[in-house]
Amino acid sequence: MQKILLVDDDIELCELLVDYLSQEGFAVDTVHDGDSAAQTLAANPYDLMILDVMLPKKNGFDVLREVSFEKRPPVLMLTAKGDEVDRILGLEMGADDYLSKPCNPRELTARIRSIIRRTHAVPPQLKSDTRAEELVLNDLVINGSRRLVYVGKTEIELTATEFQILYLLAQNAGELVTRESISEQCMGRRLMAFDRSIDMHISHLRRKLGPDQQQQERIKTIRGVGYQYVAI
C-alpha cells in the first residue's frame, strides 16, 4: 500500500480526502502545520506528499526549503484557485505538479497515481532493450534503470518529472518534442490551456544541467510548439 502524507490545516477537507483516498487503496497520514510536516518527513518514508501552500507555523514553501532533496518524496502542491505565482514558485522549488483548491477528489487521485507511476517507472525504451541502460549525449549521461543523471562526473539531482522530461528529450535529441507529448508522456495528463508547469520544469532542467561543452543551451525552445534537446 502506497503511503501519502497530507499536509493541510483544513481539518474537514483532510477527513474527506482521507476517506476518499483510503477507498482508493492509499494509506494516508495527516498533519496540519508546516513544523509537523517537516518533522514527519524526517522520520518516515512516504511515496508522495500533498502539500498546501497556506499553513500555520511554516508555509508550504518553507517546508520545501527545509526538507532535504533526499528526504523529500514527490510533491503535489495545493494552491489557491487562480494564484499562478504560488504555482510557479512551487514548481521552482521542486514540486512535481500542482492542483488548485477546491479540488475534485477524482482529479487529485489521478494526479497522485500519475506522479507515483512516473517516480518508479523505467523509461519504456529500456523495457525492450536491456542493453540501453545508459543514454549518452556527449557529457550528458542518463542511467534509465537507476534513474541517475550526470553531466561529466557531477551527479544532477532531478525530480521524477524532470527526469522523465529529460529522458524523453534526450531519446529524441535533435528532433522536436511537442508540449502535448511531454504533458501526456511525462506528466500523465493532457496539456491544459495556460499551463506553465512544463515551461517551469524545462527552466529547472536548463539551470541544473548548465550549458553544453560549446557553452550553448542544451534545450532549445520551438516557440509555441515544443522543445528540442540540441544534438551536436
Task: Spell out the blueprint of helices and strands.
Elements: E1 3-7, H1 11-23, E2 27-31, H2 34-43, E3 48-52, H3 60-66, E4 75-80, H4 84-92, E5 97-101, H5 105-120, H6 124-127, E6 134-137, E7 140-143, E8 148-151, E9 154-155, H7 160-171, E10 177-178, H8 179-186, H9 197-209, E11 219-222, E12 226-229
Helix pairs in contact: 2-3, 4-9, 7-9
Please tell me about this protein's structure.
One of its GO terms (biological process) is regulation of DNA-templated transcription. Residues 132-231 form the OmpR/PhoB-type domain. By secondary structure, the protein is α/β, with parallel strands linked by helices. The protein has two domains: 3-120, Rossmann fold, CATH 3.40.50.2300; 124-229, Winged helix-like DNA-binding domain superfamily/Winged helix DNA-binding domain (Arc Repressor Mutant, subunit A). 40% of the residues lie in helices and 22% in strands. It contains nine helices and twelve strands. The strands form three sheets. The chain has a five-stranded parallel beta sheet, with helices on both faces. The protein has a four-stranded antiparallel beta sheet with strand order 6-7-8-9, covered by helices on one side. It has a three-stranded antiparallel beta sheet with strand order 10-12-11. A hairpin with a 2-residue loop joins strand 8 (148-151) and strand 9 (154-155). Helix 2 (34-43) runs parallel beside helix 3, helix 4 (84-92) runs parallel beside helix 9 (197-209) and helix 7 packs across helix 9 (197-209). The longest helix is centred in the middle third of the chain and has 16 residues, at 105-120. The radius of gyration is 18 Å and the shape is globular. The chain starts with a strand and ends with a strand.
